[in-house]
Design goal:
Layout: H1 3-10, H2 26-40, H3 52-68, H4 80-93
GO biological process, one term: DNA integration
Pfam family, one: rve_3
Protein name: Truncated transposase-like protein IS1601-D
Length: 101
C-alpha cells in the first residue's frame, strides 16, 4: 500500500509536505519513524498487510502502547501519559516541574 496512491484513490490530500507539518517537526518525524520501524515494517510482521482495517486496528493498538507503556528516554524513561500526569499534578501542587532532557 503506497501512501500517496491511497490518498489519491480516496480523494484526500496529504497533511505533510509543507512548512509546519511533520516534515518540519523533528518530534513528529521521530514518532513517524518509530511507527514505521516498530509496526508497519517491524520484525513482528509475518507478511504484507492484508487490509486497511488490519493496519488501522494495529495502529490503534500501537498508539495506545506508545503513549501508555513504552518508555521514552527524553521523558526520564516513563511513558508520556505518566509524564503528563506528573506534570499537571506538579502544576496544581506548586511542586517543581519535571525537566525534559
Amino acid at each position: 500500500m503506497r501512501y500517496g496512491e491511497r490518498l489519491a484513490e480516496i480523494g484526500a490530500l496529504p497533511s505533510i509536505g509543507s512548512v509546519g507539518d511533520s516534515f518540519d517537526n523533528a518530534l513528529a518525524e521521530t514518532v513517524n519513524g518509530y511507527y514505521k520501524a516498530e509496526l508497519i515494517y517491524g520484525p513482528a510482521r509475518s507478511g504484507p498487510w492484508k487490509t486497511v482495517e488490519d493496519v488501522e486496528l494495529a495502529t490503534l493498538s500501537w498508539v495506545y502502547w506508545h503513549n501508555t507503556a513504552r518508555l521514552h528516554s527524553y521523558l526520564d524513561d516513563v511513558p508520556p501519559t505518566e509524564f503528563e500526569t506528573a506534570f499537571y499534578d506538579a502544576q496544581r501542587s506548586d511542586q517543581p516541574v519535571v525537566a525534559i532532557q
